[in-house]
Amino acid sequence: MPTALVTGASAGLGRALAAALVRREWTVIGDARDAAALRSAAREDGFTAVPGDVTDPAHRASLAEACPSLDLLVNNASSLGLSPLPPLARYPLADLEDVYRVNVFAPLALTQLLLPALTAARGVVIDVSSDAAVEAYEGWGGYGSAKAALDQLTAVLGAEHPDLSVYAVDPGDLRTAMHQRAFPGEDISDRPLPSAAVPAFLGLLDERPPSGRYRAADLPATA
């Protein structure tokens, strides 16, 4: 039975992916900072909860201990940063450092820790990206630049580890709590639910195209 680690699995895309993998009879370990929400999701969806903050080295060590063998790492946990989104000219640098700590340094640190297990399994790394990594949207300079950095780390990791499948995936705009924080007071009910992006991620796992950056909308979907 293959094993996956999904960060940010208490809600949104992370939870939807974890649940879909469980339905495929994967062993799934999920993490999130909100312990109560994570444990509730784990009970309902059938995965193992390891609550904690992915920026904490001790928590990352606990995650590695929970999955000595690993076929798939999904670095999904993200931080939007301040809301409303501030322009770069007024972005407090301490808050921007926090965004990079969650969106760039933590995924790299966790990947470094789990590389031996992933390499042994000829496994898959999926870093969840955003269109803000490649488009210049006003107010999105903090989050977008962090995701752009993550995209580049993903690309180089794929070049350095050709035995792995290493992907940055832009899931598109989804109806999540984080997306709502980006648009406070606005109605985002026209965005698709996170589950709508899951078939594209499953298709990626099934097809195993070359390492690189992909948009969920361009990937073949798997039921």
TrEMBL record:
GO terms for molecular function: oxidoreductase activity. Keywords: Oxidoreductase. Pfam families: adh_short. The keyword Ribonucleoprotein does not apply. SUPFAM superfamilies: NAD(P)-binding Rossmann-fold domains (SSF51735). Belongs to the short-chain dehydrogenases/reductases (SDR) family. This is Short-chain dehydrogenase.
